[in-house]
Structures are given as C-alpha cells and as structure tokens.
C-alpha cells in the first residue's frame, strides 16, 4: 500500500511552509508520515510570471478513505492561508496534491488519482525518486525513475535546495 503527496510553495518563507504543512498533516489522527524526499527548488510551469517553488514528496500511511484524505489536505491548506482561487497556476503558500492512493484510479470533478500530470512534471518525479524510484503508478507500466528519464530533455529547472 502506497500513498504519496506532493507539496509545493512559492510564497513567503517557502521552507517554513513545507515544514509547517508536514507538521499539520502529521497532527491528523489518521495520518502518519513514513518518509520525506529532499527539498527541491523548481522553476514555475504554466504561469511563468511568478517566483520559484520549493517542492517535496512525502510517503504516508492513512487510516481512511481517499475522500477523507482529500478533506484532510484541504483543511491543512486552508489553515496555512491558501485561498480558493478560480485561476489555476497562481502563486501559493502551499499546495498539497494527492499523487497516488494505493492502487486506486479515480477521476472525479474533485479528485484525480493518480494525479494526471505526474508523468510530465520533473518537480514531482525528481523528489519522488529520492524515496521510491521503483514505484509504478497503477495506470502505468513504468517506474517513477523511468518517467523522469523520459522527460529529462524538458527545460524546467529542478535543483536540490540547501
């Protein structure tokens, strides 16, 4: 059983935002963090008129449904001050994406798991290789590392944050 979350931030004290979101997630009765990737600084995608992001992937145990986890991540985002934005790809204090939830494949208006753009995002794939490079998404036959290798030619920047 494997559940992975992607965390991203490009406003304020970015490293503190990641740490605080992890602390808030871990305070949930149903959630236990198993491991964390290194932190990576990454160039923005889609909307290039914003600051660089810090991104991190965490592997968790969760005692509840996918919907419960979605509500938990939304609650943490709101506690940290994330606003409900109608326009996508805007600067943010924190963004928590459910990348995978065991072997589930779900596509609803609110939740898509595995996250549909994983295979094209270095800022997700690179940190994921830190903690489980051999993980295979339930809608794929390739490992996370193989997906990363497939997009190595993309020009977006991903570098370890010190």
CATH class: Alpha Beta
Stretches with pLDDT under 50, minimum 5 residues? none
CATH topology: Alpha-Beta Plaits
Helicity, as a percent range: 25-40%
Number of domains: 1
Report the CATH superfamily.
Answer: 7,8-Dihydro-6-hydroxymethylpterin-pyrophosphokinase HPPK
Count of individual helical segments: 4
> How many β-strand runs?
8
Name of the CATH architecture: 2-Layer Sandwich
How much of the sequence lies in strands comes to 15-25%
Give the terminus-to-terminus CA distance.
Answer: 31 Å
Kindly name the structural category.
alpha+beta
How confident overall, as mean pLDDT?
91
Any overview of this molecule?
It is a single chain. With 162 residues, this protein is an alpha+beta fold. It has a single domain, classed as 2-Layer Sandwich (Alpha-Beta Plaits). 28% of the residues lie in helices and 25% in strands. It has helices at 14-26, 66-79, 122-132, 144-150; strands at residues 3-9, 31-36, 40-42, 53-62, 95-101, 106-107, 112-113, 158-160. Strands 1, 2, 3, 4, 5 and 8 form a 6-stranded antiparallel beta sheet that branches. α3 packs antiparallel against α4. It is globular and about 40 Å long. The model has no long low-confidence stretch (mean pLDDT 91).
Task: Indicate the topology.
Blueprint lengths: L2 E7 L4 H13 L4 E6 L3 E3 L10 E10 L3 H14 L15 E7 L4 E2 L4 E2 L8 H11 L11 H7 L7 E3 L2
Antiparallel strand pairs: 1-4, 1-5, 2-4, 3-4, 3-8, 6-7
Helix pairs in contact: 3-4
């Amino acid at each position: 059983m494997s559940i992975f979350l992607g965390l991203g931030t490009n406003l304020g004290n970015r490293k503190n935002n990641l740490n605080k979101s992890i602390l808030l997630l871990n305070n949930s009765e149903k959630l236990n963090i198993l491991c964390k990737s290194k932190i990576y600084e990454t160039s923005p995608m889609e909307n290039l008129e914003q600051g660089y992001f810090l991104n991190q992937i965490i592997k968790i145990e969760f005692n509840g449904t996918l919907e419960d986890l979605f509500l938990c991540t939304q609650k943490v985002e709101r506690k940290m001050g994330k606003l409900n934005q109608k326009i996508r790809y805007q600067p943010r204090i924190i963004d928590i994406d459910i990348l995978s939830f065991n072997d589930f494949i779900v596509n609803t208006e609110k939740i898509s798991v595995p996250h549909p753009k994983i295979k094209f995002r270095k800022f997700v794939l690179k940190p994921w290789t830190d903690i489980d490079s051999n993980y295979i998404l339930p809608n794929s036959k390739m490992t996370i590392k193989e997906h990363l290798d497939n997009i190595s030619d993309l020009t977006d920047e991903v570098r370890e944050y010190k």
